[in-house]
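From the shared-data thread, chain only:
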Amino acid sequence: LRNSIKVFLLSAAVVLAACSNGNKIKISGEIEGREGNVYLERVAVDRSMVIDSMVLGGDGGFSFTTELPLGQSTIYNLRQGKDFIPLLVENGENVKVHSGEDMARSYTVTGSAESTRMKELRDIMLEGSAKMDEIRKLYYAASDDEEKTDFAKTYVREYNKAKQRQIEFIVSAPSSLVSLYGLY
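Structure, as tokens:
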């Protein structure tokens, strides 16, 4: 009986240790051409909170290991200054991020399918925003009302295209947390 209890307790300890390791995630990589602190923020509905930080290595390298709250998929931002990279991380993932100096626009992510989808959504949003910004500049530079009217119509068409692409993305995986993020 005593040996059975020891075996049971040892087995329970091994199972608990395995379960708790499943809640750990790792986010690592490089941000080229930058130095200083990089922050890992956990994103909540109403705010983001810094949960860890580190000084970028000489090669722009960083590495964070943390535990998911309640073991659930969680959205994080990898932030430096005003620039950030959104990530949706799940239990046990080892996410690798590589970024050029333009952190928000030129990054790749591997090791996390949902973080890859997050990047796809962000690319759609940034592309639409860039097109509308360019049209807005042309509108303000226009010299007559007819030109301004044409640019205004073009702006509305581009806005509708960008929204349509976002809707198509969201509808393609309606149960994904990335889709919820896109709606928000």
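The helical segments are 2-22, 113-141, 145-172, 177-183.
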